[in-house]
């Protein structure tokens, strides 16, 4: 891992200290506006770090050989999302406001269509690597992870590839998708469907 990668690895700890530090300050001298500030720290600080980092270190679908001493911008993005991966209940609160979770994913860089329904316990590990069409329904405890470690040319490599769901797709409960999963429009996936690396749903999969 490069020096930059090691430095960004401390972001989750920095984030935790900021949240706890501000909460401690609120206990000493409470003002109502501090609630908004705390919400901003919890939700917006990681997002702002992600967006600023992406401006200087953008990344697209591809792979990185793990043994090479080369800065991996995906790793920084992963660290900025770490608080919501470790504490998914924080993100689940966004589902109480209709449309807010889709807006949240758009802010991270995903393309999300209109009228998308996400059940509250959906898990998206790579928030900026989703492309979802209009009128999509995503079932209970479904998971989407746009990265994995795979063997490429005999070497372990991190593979990153966007997950795509077409218009009017219905994703059954407990469906799991990996990097490169691609579901065409008007497809209805059965519960517990598994689409892993380069997985494309076909009629024969039903």
Secondary structure layout plus pairing:
Blueprint: H1 3-8, H2 11-28, H3 33-56, E1 62-65, H4 73-86, H5 88-92, H6 100-108, E2 111-112, E3 117-118, E4 123-124, E5 130-132, E6 137-138, E7 143-144, E8 147-152, E9 155-160, E10 163-165, E11 170-171, E12 176-177, E13 182-183, E14 188-189, E15 194-195
Parallel strand pairs: 2-5, 3-6, 4-7, 5-10, 6-11, 7-12, 10-13, 11-14, 12-15
Antiparallel strand pairs: 1-9, 8-9
Helix pairs in contact: 2-3, 2-4, 3-4
Question: Could you walk me through the main structural features you see in this protein, from its secondary elements to its overall organization?
Answer:
The chain is of the alpha/beta class. It is built from six helices and 15 strands. It has a four-stranded parallel sheet, with helices on one face. Strands 3-6-11-14 form a four-stranded parallel sheet, with no helix packed on it. Helix 2 (11-28) packs across helix 4 and helix 3 packs antiparallel against helix 4 (73-86). The protein is flat and about 55 Å long. Mean pLDDT is 92; it is low at 202-206.
């Amino acid at each position: 891992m490069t020096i930059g990668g090691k430095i960004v690895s401390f972001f989750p700890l920095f984030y935790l200290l900021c949240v706890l530090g501000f909460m401690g300050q609120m206990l000493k001298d409470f003002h109502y506006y501090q609630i908004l500030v705390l919400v901003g720290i919890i939700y917006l600080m990681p997002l702002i770090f992600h967006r600023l980092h992406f401006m200087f270190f953008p990344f697209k679908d591809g792979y990185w050989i793990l043994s090479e001493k080369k800065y991996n911008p995906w790793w920084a993005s992963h660290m900025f999302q770490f608080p919501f991966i470790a504490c998914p209940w924080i993100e689940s609160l966004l589902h109480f406001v209709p449309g807010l979770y889709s807006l949240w994913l758009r802010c991270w860089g995903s393309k999300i269509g209109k009228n998308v329904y996400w059940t509250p316990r959906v898990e998206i590990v790579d928030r900026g690597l989703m492309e979802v069409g209009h009128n999509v329904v995503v079932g209970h405890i479904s998971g989407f992870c746009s990265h994995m470690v795979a063997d490429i040319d005999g070497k372990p490599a991190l593979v990153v590839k966007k997950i795509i769901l077409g218009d009017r797709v219905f994703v059954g409960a407990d469906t799991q998708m990996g990097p490169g999963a691609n579901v065409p429009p008007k497809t209805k996936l059965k519960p517990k469907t598994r689409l892993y690396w380069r997985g494309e749903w076909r009629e024969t999969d039903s």
